[in-house]
Sequence to fold (223 residues):
Amino acid sequence: MSGRAAKKVRVGVLASGRGSNLQAIIDAIEANRLDAQIALVLSNKSDAMALDRARKHGLTDVFLDPKPFAGQPDSRDAYDRAVLDVLRKHDVELVLLAGYMKIVTSVLVKAYENRMMNIHPSLLPAFPGLDVQKKALEHGVKVSGCTVHFVTEGVDEGPIIIQAAVPVLPGDDAALLAARVLEQEHVIYPMAIRWFLDGRLVLAEGQVGVTGEGARQFQLADR
Ligand code: GRF
Fold:
């Protein structure tokens, strides 16, 4: 249709804490580096800084309290059904986990199969779960990094979209290493989202390929 901008993909961000990855995504959108619209930011924590960031940018923020669901035999599924209701109510097409400290169940995974991404502060499949940099340092790794992947039912599993590596330096503690990794998270998450929005991610036999010239240039020139 002439004269009308293409409809922007509606993104839902799920976050539990600080929200620096959310901020990187907001910044990329506001700088026109990402052609998407954040339909809502949802948190399981009422005091998540991510919700403050959403409000500051005029975005819809939703706190969905897990407490009323606790005690039910399928409390995790029930919570995710409620999350799904909210996501659907806001026409969310792509879900981004950004420091979301809750295991997502098959309820969400199936509803958003290949349309839900997560960022994790390690070079997966090394060091899934929590206390990542502590474990990495205890193992004496020389390189750490971060991974964006599609979400499947296994925690921090799922087809890898992009990774960035950082060196482990003498004198590093978990906080120093985490900060170095975080800088790269803020680069690769918007990049993975852009590839998705541009239709450049191809999933075959459980592996993600990136089509197009830019992908090759990024790998050769920037890494
Ligand atoms: C990041 O390190 C992310 O990789 C992990 O949780 C942290 C969230 O940080 N999943 P922030 O809330 O985005 O600042």
Summary: The CA atoms of residues 145 and 165 lie 4 Å apart. The longest strand covers residues 36-43.
